[in-house]
Task: structure prediction
Amino acid sequence: MALSLAVSACAGPGNLFGSKKSSDSRPVIAVSFYPLAEIVQRVAGDTVQLLQLTPAGKEPHETDISAQQLVELSKADVVFYLGDGFQPSVEKAIKNLPSTVTTIDLLQSVEELPQGSDKEYCLPACPNNNPPDPHVWLDPNNMSEMAITVAAEISKVKSLSSTTPLTEGLTTYAEELQKVGALIDTTFKKCERPQLVTSHDAFMYFAVRAHLITMPITGVDPEVEPSAKDLEGTAFYTKERGVTTVFYEKMLPRAFADTLAKMIGAKVESIDAVETISEKDLKAGATYISIMKSNIRKIAAGLGCK
Ligand SMILES: [Zn+2]
Result:
């Protein structure tokens, strides 16, 4: 548990979990889960102390904010998070913070789409009364938009060293994100099988960008298990469309993906919704950018894209 509270010197994405020094006068920037930590690290580097609320390798939807974390959080200068029910415990904690803490819901920085916007029954557009989908970071363009807000908000913190401009970090990171976005645009121009079968409904923004259609085994919340009837429906749909690969998410249980693959005679392959990165992978240098490139390569192979 101590690891989840720790504030780091922010030396690199692999070093997000160091320990806080009381003599440290740098601003404390809290983030609710991994992709936001990477944004802060890339934009502000070691000019800030980073407090990450979801421990490395833990699934963020069900993150529970402890009383001790709440104490740490109340000392932060800025808290960045995603609302709309993505992490209910974080949203609840934020409501109880003193007014000295600036709280920023980064979903306000991007265009959120209604759930199902990539689905056949929704195209060309899902009705606006579908609830919004918070998995916005899976389109790199939304990462850039959130990074712009993060840089602007951190720049406003009084204790930030004025000698260190954040524009340099922001520009470099935005360029890398733009390249990943361009890779999506060029890789998925023509796919033999545009149905992307995944463990949970996380990849809608990726699918919209890539002109694919997701077929998740569970919903937006990965904790809700599919019934046998749901699984049969998914098997019928995916078999009818000639799906040959069922993708499971590295950080989630893969039993349902294995079952579905068996039912339709498909193979299984892992992808990663970048909701969290294990400490081991962080140490090995994994980042949002490297994981997205790997996702693009595997999805393109599984869907027969040229
Ligand atoms: Zn999710």
The two ends are 46 Å apart (CA to CA). The chain is about 40% helix and 10% strand. The mean pLDDT is 89.
